[in-house]
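Explain this protein:
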Amino acid sequence: MVYLADDACQALAHWLQVRRWQTALIFSGHGGRPLSYEVARSNFKRLLVQADLAHKGYTLHGLRHTFASELLNAGMRLECLQPLLGHSQIEMTRRYARLTDVTRKEEYFRAMAKIEKEGVHGDYRCDFNYRRFLKRRNCSRYTLRNYMNTLKHFVIWIAEPIEQVTARTILSFIDHLLDKRLSAKTINCYLDGIRGFYDYLIHEENVQIANPVKRGYVLKLARPLPRYLRDEEIPRLFAVIDQKRDRAIFMLMLRCGLG
């Protein structure tokens, strides 16, 4: 089953009213012949140029990605989005649908407000000795900030003192990050930072514990996905579409996740 939004229905109705070739095909080329994907892709590239969006590297398949991202940011659950995209496994939906800049910004400030409000617990403070240790290793300011923010997120999340964290805790933390829809690359950066901190505790602070972040705890990186249009770019694209057939095609792709 495919659901059609009102604007998609309207665009399709306008095209059906004016199409010249009355065939069984909804969209056809010259003489009623089937319309190839290459023609649609070429038309999309031309429209991107007209909308001054060609430099963004968008592809026709990116409309499907835009569809998924918009629904997620509107509050749709992953298990509801999954059948709309035709995915057999929820992991594919989680990998495919990423958040827009607006959602990332909100999540960032929400997380940072929690970090600034709450302290860290356990016998080891992560914001002094470890920071000095990283500086002695000539870590850049960017790397230092990322390591410290990663560690703070982790310490706030765990329910036990740092020295009592187990491998099972780390696996639960990975599940937590997946539920937050973080990418495999980002999660691996988290694990690398936490593993490095425990190496520091063991070798520099002489804490008698085993590193709970096992070397095998690495998520497989997914293939890069097509870029998706930002909210303000969608009207720019459709504002330059004069042909009713093209408007119907691209509106259906955007609203139904086709492509």
The longest helix spans residues 184-203.
